[in-house]
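Lecture 7, part 2: worked example. A protein chain together with uridine-diphosphate-N-acetylglucosamine.
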Amino acid sequence: MVSGGARLVGDVFVGGAKNSVLKLMAAALLAQGRTVLTNAPEIADVPLMADVLRGLGATVDISGDTVTIDTPAEPDYHADFDAVKQFRASVCVLGPLMARRHRAVVALPGGDAIGSRPLDMHQAGLRALGAQSTIEHGCVVAEAERLSGAEVVLDFPSVGATENILMAAVLAEGVTTIDNAAREPEIVDLCVMLTEMGARIDGAGSPTLTVTGVDALTPTTHHVVGDRIVAGTWGVAAVMTRGDITVHGIDPEHLRLVLKKLEGAGARVDRFDDGFRVIQESRPVAVDTATLPFPGYPTDLQPMAIGLATVSEGMSMVTENVFEARFRFVEELVRLGADARTDGHHAVIRGVERLSSAPVWSSDIRAGVGLVLAGLVADGDTEVHDIEHIDRGYPNFEDQLRTLGGTIRREIG
Ligand code: UD1
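Predicted complex, written out as structure tokens:
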């Protein structure tokens, strides 16, 4: 239950990125011994990933924001459905298993209902490195005599495919180039950790990654990069509620375009080394947004962009270029009185002064948070159902919201 009307004011601290920590945990499979991750977010997906790694023979300990993974000399190569079914990121064990074992059987994962999420680019990349890969009985199956460096050109800068190919290539023989690689800060974070482990990688953060294979990697201790999506969510929340929020624990460069959009909506944004402050005094004005791979506007903040548009002055167009089914939650916003319609991958929204409370249902992590933000600018109390999605990506979300002056209550049952 979310009550509308509060102006959110105060400080929030964001932890490590969900979309980084899960991949870094998988990367721990690349080196025998004890890898330690600090600044890990306390979200539901971290223990789930720990179970995936345990199923592969690793010992995993989670203590507050520290995750310790002890990888055996020879990890198992089969990640079964029970372990991976609940979340998409589990597929990132594919690359490390190919690197260490030259074979992998990974059940096709579940995850958010945001559109079809094929693995063709992951498989094409592994094939280029010399593996055979098929889908059999609901599993990705890959096998290779040995992995050899190759030129890989991705059709699209897929985050997951870049990560899997990168993690397979670090222990392959020779040089691999990945062209049209994803450039997200979480990819850079992975490259930094792999380099700390002894990998040789050039071009992190650019569209071309060059990887020179090495014989073995050694474990490391690594600080997970801050979660730009959580940070950006609070920035949008400040603008929607005409509030004043200072976000700590994030490099504002990772949100360069998002913060520019917030300024376009009328906010004052102050940037610091490890955070930013967003102040909104009056009703936000409409801005257009198009999602694209980094450094474009992140698709994971698209629901927040639409939420903002519903109460902005004027007409906004939000274009989704990454996941086709991400507009499902627009129907929920319409329940709250939003004047919005979708056509293909465009959503057109005419802002209203205030939304009106209603029961709504969240379909994934980001849509869930988008609906809570909408509830904050609706008259009365809004029931957001299936809120457990939020626990997968936003640590202590309700506590943080309350600290900022929001009223939210979780009802179990
Ligand atoms: C990751 C993030 C997710 C984010 C997305 C885009 C994690 C755990 N999740 O997801 O939060 O929204 O990046 O920034 O890090 N595609 C193919 N074939 C493939 C792979 C992808 O067609 O083999 C398509 C997808 O269907 C999608 C697009 O490429 O349309 C982008 O997907 P991708 O970048 O791979 O996203 P994920 O890694 O799944």
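The chain has 14 helices and 27 strands. The CA atoms of residues 220 and 324 lie 38 Å apart. Keep this in mind for problem set question 3.
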